[in-house]
Every structure is written in C-alpha cells, then in structure tokens.
Amino acid sequence: MTDLHSPGCCIVTGEPVFQVITVYPEGHPLAGRPLKIGAPLENALRATLVLLNGVATVTVAREMLDALSQELPNIWRRVLRTSLYEEENRLMLGGAPRSPEEARKHQEGLEKLLANIPIGVLCAVPWRDFLKG
After folding, report:
1. Which range of residues forms the domain containing residue 36?
2. pLDDT tens digits, one per residue of 70-121
3. Which helix (H) or strand (E) holds 72?
4. N or C: lower Cβ tally within 10 Å for the chain?
5. What's the domain count of the chain?
C-alpha cells in the first residue's frame, strides 16, 4: 500500500482502475501519480463504506473487494492521511484560495471525517454502471 491515495486508483493496492490521462510531472512531490483520469476500467468498483456517523465512498478493484473489508482500518488511515495532505498542500496541488466561509466549511468537514470511523462495507457497484446513472 502507498502512503497516499491517488484519484482513479484502487484504495487497497494503489493501482489505477481508471484510465490515466496525465500524471504529475517529474520534480513534483506527486510525480508519476495520476493528475487527470478518464473512464473507469472494467474492474473499477465504487464501494460505499458505513461510518459511525454516515457513509463514504472509495474506489476499489473488483478483485480486491474482500481485502477492502479485511484492511478497513489501514485503508481508513490512508483516506485520512490523503485528506490531510491535500488540505495542507492544496495550493501547490492547484487548488484555488478559499474565502473565510469556504475555509470554515471545509475545516468542519475535515473534522467530521477525522472523528469518524468505518464500520464495514455496505455495497459496491461498478463505476461504469454508477456513471451511466
């Protein structure tokens, strides 16, 4: 497992399950990781996690769905590390400055995420089906 989760990649293995259009360039702290993703691959699933206070979704490869349940504490730590990293480095990652109100709302959401824990996997559907509506 990698330290941070990348968009379009399996939360368990870190391997792409979406087409990778472009990656971060050499010299960037996230060099080689997906920057822009395209369509989901055949094995891409959108898994819904039941949290103590709500739900969250993650992307997982079909063949890693069982491992998702078994590795849930480690995977949740990765989700939290990634969220914190993205917040601390959002301007470097191309994010726009936030207004004070936007910053407050985002901080509240981050605090809710940090205070939550996953209980289990509710369901998983192919990303292709989900995107069709």
Report:
1. 18-132
2. 999 999 999 888 888 888 888 777 778 888 898 888 888 888 888 888 999 9
3. helix 72-88
4. C
5. 1
